[in-house]
Write the structure tokens for this entry.
Amino acid sequence: MTNYPKLFGTLLTATRAYSALLDEGIDQNDQKMAQSTAYADLLNAGQALHRQGGPAAVAGAADYLSRCFADGSIRHFSRLWAGLMAPPGAH
């Protein structure tokens, strides 16, 4: 059974972390990204979403987050949450 309050709480955490990461600059190299607290928070939220709802929850959150911010893009999540979302066409 899906725990929706927990799922939405995790989405809120992901929203805050993505916002902070956009403020920091999303196009950082991997070494800088690895040192980012905002990226760590976003990755942890993505992993929690995956545990709570699987790849579909992660993909839905990525789609939602990419539309919440003027600088947002679904392409960011192919890098940020690589491996957490199902490959295109897989259901």
Summary: The helical segments are 4-24, 30-34, 37-68, 74-80. Residues 37-68 form the longest helix (32 residues).
